[in-house]
Write a structure and sequence with these properties.
It is built from six helices and 13 strands. With about 260 residues, it is an alpha+beta fold. A hairpin with a 2-residue loop joins β3 and β4. About 0% of the residues have low confidence.
Length: about 260
């Protein structure tokens, strides 16, 4: 498609905002692209949009074009410390839906207090890269279904890894798991980013909650990172997730930023 959505005066030239594909818009001034808007479907089906524009008026024009074409609800994610960006989205009708805290998690057991933590009786930890792929994928699916049936997967971290439809475990080598008898009952995913490892997911089967499985997974993972010379890892925690908040606060994690998920209904 190549339909013109709006024309507005800007300086000495007209700015034309055009939808150039199903999920992309461009603002053109004097044959130069001066701004763009993009939309993308998250794996949970929600539609997130983003806009790259030099000034507020151009942002509003691109937003108007996108909002005229796209169904609601629409979502976007902003750094809460970026007041200008947050204000721009609020100006075009978006409101805060949830807050996600970014936390720095120390790895030193002297700080975390996890040095003496052992898995519950009958539970062992399978290190990252050693888990069997089939049982791991089964556990991941069980945990995701349990989350969706309760608090909803939308309360999980805003930054969702892109993946082929239906595939939720992209790289099994990034997962350590908790094993009880012949079953996997908990998992933790750590992405070994160059600057700072990221704890992307901690999950425990509902029938194994409140037994210390998550703490044992964290103790194993953070201990391994500490021994490799890594001082801290990064994690995101939804503000409404009291259990995850308590877990990280209890091991000395500190807030280092926040992200807002905004919605226009």
């Amino acid at each position: 498609m190549n339909s013109v959505h709006s024309i507005s005066g800007a300086g000495n030239h007209a700015v034309v905002v055009t939808r150039v594909s199903d999920l992309q818009w461009q603002a053109v001034e004097d044959d130069q692209v001066v701004g763009c808007g993009d939309a993308a479907h998250r794996p949970d089906g929600r539609l997130f949009i983003s806009i790259d524009a030099w000034h507020g008026e151009l942002f509003d024009r691109i937003a108007d074009a996108m909002l005229a074409d796209l169904p609601t609800p629409l979502y976007t994610v902003v750094d809460e410390a970026d007041y200008d960006s947050t204000s721009a989205w609020e100006r075009v009708g978006f409101t805060a839906a949830r807050r996600e805290w970014g936390v720095l998690v120390p790895t030193d057991p002297e700080i975390t207090g996890l040095g003496s933590v052992q898995p519950p009786t009958g539970v062992s930890i399978v290190p990252a890269g050693e888990a069997e792929e089939g049982p791991l994928r089964t556990l991941d699916r069980v945990i995701r279904d349990e989350v969706e049936a309760t608090v909803g997967w939308r309360t999980m971290p805003a930054e969702v890894l892109p993946r082929p439809a239906g595939i939720t475990v992209v790289d099994p080598t990034k997962y350590a798991v908790a094993r009880e008898s012949d079953q996997y009952v908990g998992l933790i995913r750590v992405v070994p980013l160059p600057r700072q490892p990221r704890i992307g997911l901690i999950g425990v089967r509902a029938d194994r909650h409140r037994r210390g499985v998550a703490r044992a997974l964290l103790a194993h993972t953070l201990g391994s990172l500490h021994r490799s010379g890594t001082a801290a890892a990064w994690a995101e925690v939804d503000e409404s997730n009291a259990a995850a908040t308590a877990l990280f606060q209890g091991i000395g994690a500190r807030r280092a930023g926040s992200t807002l998920e905004l919605v226009r209904r």
